[in-house]
Structure formats: C-alpha cells, structure tokens
Write the structure tokens for this entry.
Amino acid sequence: MLSLRTIIGTLALAGTVVGCAAPPTFRNVVYEHVSQTARVLDPSGRATSRHNNFRFPPGTIVLPDNSEIADVLKREAGFIGEAQACPQRLYRLKDLTRVLPKENPVHVPYDIKIVLASPFSAQSAIANFKNSKGLADIPDNTLAWVRQVDYTISNIKAYEVNDEQFANSIKQIKADPNCAFAIKPFRSLVVRRIYVGNVNIYVRWDRGYALAVGSSIRSRVESALRFSYVGRKRVFAVETDRLGFF
C-alpha cells in the first residue's frame, strides 16, 4: 500500500517533471501556429458575411480596458480583454481581402498522466479515472497528477481591410458623435485583420491522492478541474494598429 511519505515525495517529483514542460495556453497556440503578432480574444460571437454584428469586424476602433502585445520570450500571443468598441459600417466580410492562414487546421495536444496505485486498487477504476472526461474521484490507494489540454482550431479564415478601407473606416467612425469615447490616440487600437475559425478547447487538471486503510481510516486530498469549449465561426484573434493620429 502506498505510504504518505511515498505520496508526498512522488507528488513533489511529479510537480518538478511537469513544471519543466508546462502545458501550452491558447495564447501559446495562436503565437506558434497562427500569428506571432496577433492578439487573442475570448472566442465569442459568430462571424457572418452578411452583417457586421459580431465582435470587432476589421476597421473597428477598440478602446481596451486591458490588453497586451505578443511576448517573444514567452512565445505567446497578445490579448484584448474587456473593451469598448465602435465598429465600421462600410464594409462586410465579403468586401474585405482574404488572407491564407499560416496553418489550417491547428491541433495541439498535451497529455501527462502520472497515476500510481497499490496492487490492491481496482484496475477498472484506475482505467476509468485516466480516461474520464468529467469530474471523477481518485480511486482508493492511488495518487494522481494529470495535466491534459487539447486545442483544435479548424476552418481558419483571415480577413483584413486594405489601406483605403482602413482610412475610410477610421474617417466614418470619427464622424460619428456616438463614437467620440473611442477616439483616444495613445490608447485606442484599430483592427486591421481578424482570424475566424471553429475553436475546440479541452482542459483537465487533476492532483491528489486517496488512501483507504481497512474500512475505517480514509484520507483524500484532491484538486480537479474540467473545462471544455466548442464554438463555430468564432473570431478568436485580431491584428491591430495603434490609432495614433490616423
């Protein structure tokens, strides 16, 4: 049977091993496989060719509350978090320039499972735990360290405004009195290109142990996370320019 000392030592070793090869984030995936200058968005809102009623059509002026540029050292894309925006209303997707994506589709899996069990543990329970997509208790007399992520971005399309459309979009937005709040030369961004695709994300994060001695003494320490996301035709990243004094 696994001893507490063995469990603590092995979990510490597992932490060291996993820490040397940290699982990628969505920002890492976009940086490595889509664009090294893009900013990631929360992939919400479905892009359509008929209307600009989705988040940040190219030519939009965005005033972000928080944002970052891409980080070369961490090899991760930038991001735009909460933001106010004024979209351009002159051009629909069908009017814009299509750009071939760097890769299509993109699939990045990462899977490290360290599961140690005593000879008395039920092997079927161990197998079910390893393959579980939902929250599952660690089986008795078992320690586990699981880091599993899987990213797929398929049917990727990129659309951008040309220089004339870029200038006309800014002119139209600046002429709109309802968009005065967004005109901040040193803070506002202008979206030049968007990336649209079908986004699938799965994350599994397990750590802990479960001891059972006879029928009376039990000890269980667990932390577990499951997250999944599926979205079609989502705007998941953008390329931007600083508004400045355009």
The longest helix spans residues 4-20. DSSP finds four helices and ten strands in the chain.
